[in-house]
Amino acid sequence: MFRGSNAISLDIKGRVTIPTRYRQSLLDDCQGHLVCTIDTQQPCLLLYPLPEWEEIELKLSRLSSMNPHERRMQRMLLGNASEGDMDKNGRFLLNAPLRQHAKLDKQIMLVGQFNKFEIWDADVWQQQLNLDVATEQEGNFELTERLQDFSL
Fold first, then answer.
1. Which of 55, 41, 53 is nearest to 117 (CA)?
2. Which of 18, 35, 75, 83 could make an S-S bridge to 90, C-beta 3.0–4.6 Å?
């Protein structure tokens, strides 16, 4: 399980260094084989261990290529998927189109989200976090049934 946020520098070649605390788990679970794609709802990337990504692919394969909405989702996620392996230093290459989609510059945030990571430009992440906190504090939104039962 991935949790927490980590400030990381994107190197000149476009590689992100996976924090040490996650590396052994990724090596054990998927031999460091990862898949990165765009987030269709937010200006960030999604980085999956291969077994988790394969579950997404299975769900996508069940969508109809004849339905334009379902085909669009397949196109966005599969068409932007880039796979690769962590190198011996724990680095993973983010290709140029992915970096451009998320407007990644030198300073990025790697954010744990249970079975995957989100990769954000650091400034955009801070803006999103500020917006999320303000929305919660204002309480100007409809609670889903699951959120009504959620407490800390």
1. 53
2. 18
